[in-house]
Amino acid sequence: MVDRALLATKIAAVRDATARVRAVLPASVEAFIADRTAREVVTLNVFVAIQDCLDLAAHWIADAGWEMPETYGDVFAALARHGVIPPEIAERLGAAAACRNLVAHQYGALEWRRVHMLATSGLGDLDTFCAILADRTRKHP
């Protein structure tokens, strides 16, 4: 299993990032698009939260001795195949990983509506993912 200190640190980072997003995210996509500061804060913190979840997933896979997938999106699918997370969460997190890749590699090409949608509807999946890993670690030390 993943080191408990690493797990706690990464989960705290995800929770902090999602809280920052929730604190500054305008309710409407139009207000989000018009507010450069909100776009930057949201985009950065969504990126950080997804990256930390990817790190947790990769550590989990490595510690279990499973084959490491070739893409970030497949990391979550691998956890679903091994029964760690539900397939529907894995699918949505895989899509979030694709958004993370856009931020990392083509910032200027971001679709602000997509970022806003992820920030309004996808944060719960990141929180759920962290809760599942924390719960599994408590039950199986």
Structure explained in plain terms:
- The protein is mainly α and 141 residues long.
- It has one domain: Four Helix Bundle (Hemerythrin (Met), subunit A).
- 79% of the residues lie in helices and 0% in strands.
- The protein has seven helices and no strands.
- It has helices at residues 4-24, 29-34, 36-64, 72-81, 87-105, 112-121, 123-139.
- Helix 3 packs across helix 5.
- The longest helix has 29 residues, at 36-64.
- The radius of gyration is 15 Å and the shape is globular.
- The model has no long low-confidence stretch (mean pLDDT 90).
Portion of residues within helices: over 70%
Order of helices and strands: HHHHHHH
Radius of gyration: 15 Å
Strand content: under 5%
Classified by CATH, the class is: Mainly Alpha
* Tally of discrete structural domains: 1
- Topology, number of strands: 0
Residue-averaged pLDDT, rounded?
Answer: 90
Secondary-structure arrangement, i.e. CATH architecture: Up-down Bundle
Give the CATH H-level superfamily: bsu32300-like
Shape: globular
Which secondary-structure class do the elements indicate?
Answer: mainly alpha
Largest sheet: number of strands, sense, barrel closure: none
Number of helices, where a helix is a run of at least 4 consecutive DSSP H or I residues: 7
CATH topology: Four Helix Bundle (Hemerythrin (Met), subunit A)
Distance between the termini: 7 Å
Low-confidence stretches: none
